[in-house]
Description:
4-stranded mixed beta sheet, disordered N terminus, alpha+beta
Amino acid sequence: MGLSENIKGIHHVSVSAYDGEAASRWYQENLGFELVQKKITAMNGKTEFFLLRKGNLLVELVQPHGRLREETRLRKTGVLDHYAIDTADLDIQAERALQKGMTLHTSTPEGITSYPHLGRNGVKGINFTGSEGEVIEFCHDESTDYSGKTGLLGFAHLALKALSLERTEEFFGRMGFRKTGEGFLLAPDGKIRVAFLEHQG
């Protein structure tokens, strides 16, 4: 499918990559993404883009040039906490990922983790570290009917770190997002508040 075809309903995540070719192979071999386009743009030198698709999720790997490329080696975690792929058969997909040698992220060191205070009926997830250090969650929503579905299905959600949920909700509200739910995670130093925002329309 071409990039411009059926673009409605596609969720787009961009990941800065030091080695775009290697990262592209990693996504294809480990997560079953399809490479739909590779392009080179004269932007800050020669910037390479690798567009990969899995269901309704488009991951754009961006390999910058020169100094900007070297900076990708030094970056630390930012406001993006993780992005999640909706997963019908979480146990099977988690085991396959581990058999392929994918690395568990430190946020889920024991593997599949239950989050009973998120969503209507709770959520289960497991986090992996991607080829460029990005955090990828396999997410299974206990309130979703996955009957007849298997595998990694596509986009589930994008998680951002926020200093103030109220200010973040107000900011995204100006762009048409509305709060659809809330919950919390239990952490060693207390509860981590979570708000779910969805774009309406």
